[in-house]
């Protein structure tokens, strides 16, 4: 998530960007002085895997799972994408685009570059442009989502700037898969589950979160995060097994929903006045307007998190760390928060640790004593201040390696349709000059 302001600054914080990798095993951080990777294998310690200070003002940094491949965009060259082998410290290739790069998404088959009114689909094996989706509705925030599944390799992006339509695109067969009328208001957040068979959506209104089947577009779940106020949804994230969905916003509350179908219980005659009234109330929903009756059937949060701040942009993730389900929140105040999630009871999650994204940690009891206004507020997007630039330039074949763990390990092979990663057979990367 880009955390820079419209002027390209991040206030008092050094943090410009933060994002979790595809399986939530590491955290990428872009700063004014470069970028860093942290391992998420421990709660008590935030281990720094790598730090680069060669590129300043890194506003986008995306790592491919636990591999050495990283995609980088700088505020000083916001129309240029650099693909690097960070362990060797070498640039593999670079591309220049006609407008500001707002988002980059990676999986083992595709690399997606999102501009305000176009999307470029690259083959990650050689970085060749396979397809360009042009003249998309204005998308100044660079909202899009890419499934990490090899079998269901879908891209989702807004189909309208005025209502919440979602366009779903098959990035393997390079054709449109579906259009989902998800919300009445414009989209604010999108997220695929790990299997690529579910898509979560939220609108700018921020009160309702929906989950659709992919590619069919059938509504599977509908959750209400609140009715008192409209909020700005910052991020949506599924757990890796797809059972939980987290939603963070510009408020102090993160909601966690459980994706399970309620079993219908046999009808029982009520024995109290309250039971009788409830039965009459539910029966009357069939005569109410659709918007009112939906409120009676929408799911509520299974668990919640109370952040020690509000007003900061943030990104959340659900991960298993040391065999316990955790909610992770990386925020524009420069901190990573880790909470325990009770998978049986839900309820309010327990804050376990807070790590400053310079590698230091703070005990949980010290976190709660801090107030939200003691930390810098970071505004929205930086793209409005950047002018148009160069056209797209060609690239050359690339190769890189992937490790089993976030810190190190032997090379691994994936399915036949995926990219085969082998450290020993790796060719020297090519450096392309496109300036």
Could you characterize what this model shows?
The chain has 435 residues and is mainly beta. Helices cover 6% and strands 40% of the residues. The chain contains 3 helices and 30 strands. A 5-stranded mixed sheet has the order 21-22-23-24-28, with no helix packed on it. The protein has a 5-stranded antiparallel sheet with strand order 25-26-27-29-30. The longest helix is centred in the middle third of the chain and has 12 residues. The relative contact order is 0.16. The C terminus is likely disordered.
What is this structure's SSE topology?
Blueprint: E1 15-20, E2 26-31, E3 34-39, E4 47-52, E5 58-63, E6 69-74, E7 77-85, E8 90-96, E9 103-106, E10 110-114, E11 118-123, E12 129-134, E13 145-146, E14 154-158, E15 164-170, E16 175-183, E17 187-192, E18 198-203, E19 208-213, E20 219-224, E21 233-238, E22 244-249, E23 253-258, H1 273-284, H2 290-297, E24 303-306, E25 314-321, E26 324-331, E27 335-340, E28 347-348, E29 350-356, E30 361-363, H3 364-367
Question: Largest sheet, if any?
Answer: 5 strands, mixed
Uncertain ranges: 5-12, 288-297, 371-397, 399-435
Strand content is: 35-45%
Question: Fraction of residues in helices?
Answer: under 10%
Note the main attributes of this structure.
WD repeat, 435 residues, 3 helices, WD repeat domain phosphoinositide-interacting protein 2, mainly beta, five-stranded antiparallel sheet, single chain
């Amino acid at each position: 998530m880009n955390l820079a302001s419209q002027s390209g600054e991040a206030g008092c914080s050094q943090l410009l960007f933060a994002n979790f990798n595809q399986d939530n095993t590491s955290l990428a951080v872009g700063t004014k002085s470069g970028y860093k990777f942290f391992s998420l294998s421990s709660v008590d310690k935030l281990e720094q895997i790598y730090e680069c200070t060669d590129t300043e003002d890194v506003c986008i940094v995306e790592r491919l799972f636990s591999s050495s491949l990283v995609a980088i965009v700088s505020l000083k060259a916001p129309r240029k994408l650099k693909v690097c082998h960070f362990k060797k410290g070498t640039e593999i290739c670079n591309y220049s685009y006609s407008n500001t790069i707002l988002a980059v998404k990676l999986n083992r088959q595709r690399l997606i570059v999102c501009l305000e009114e176009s999307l470029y689909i690259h083959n990650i094996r050689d970085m060749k442009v396979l397809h360009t989706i042009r003249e998309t509705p204005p998308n100044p925030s660079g909202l899009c989502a890419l499934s990490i599944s090899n079998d269901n390799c879908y891209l989702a992006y807004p189909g309208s700037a005025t209502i919440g339509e979602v366009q779903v695109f098959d990035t393997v067969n390079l054709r449109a898969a579906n259009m989902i009328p998800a919300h009445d208001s414009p989209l604010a957040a999108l997220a695929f589950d790990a299997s690529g068979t579910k898509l979560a959506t939220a609108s700018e209104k921020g009160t309702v979160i929906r989950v659709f089947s992919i590619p069919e577009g059938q509504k599977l779940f509908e959750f209400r995060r609140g009715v008192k106020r409209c909020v700005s949804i910052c991020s949506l994230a599924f757990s890796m097994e797809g059972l939980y969905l987290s939603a963070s916003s510009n408020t102090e509350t993160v909601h966690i929903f459980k994706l399970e179908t309620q079993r219908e219980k046999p009808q029982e005659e009520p024995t109290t006045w309250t039971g009788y009234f409830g039965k009459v109330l539910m029966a009357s929903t069939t005569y109410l307007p659709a918007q009112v009756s939906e409120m009676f059937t929408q799911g509520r949060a299974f668990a919640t998190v109370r952040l020690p701040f509000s007003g900061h942009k943030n990104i959340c993730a659900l991960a298993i760390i040391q065999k316990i389900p955790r909610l992770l929140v990386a925020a524009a105040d420069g901190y990573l928060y880790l909470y325990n999630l009770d998978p049986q009871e839900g309820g309010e999650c327990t804050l376990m640790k807070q790590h400053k994204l310079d590698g230091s940690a703070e005990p949980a009891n010290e976190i709660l004593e801090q107030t939200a206004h003691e930390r810098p507020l970071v505004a929205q997007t930086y793209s409005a201040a950047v002018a148009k630039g160069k056209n797209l330039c060609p690239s050359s074949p690339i190769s890189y390696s992937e490790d089993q763990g976030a810190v190190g390990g032997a090379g691994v092979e994936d399915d036949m349709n995926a990219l085969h990663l082998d450290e020993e057979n790796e060719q020297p990367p090519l450096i392309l000059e496109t300036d």
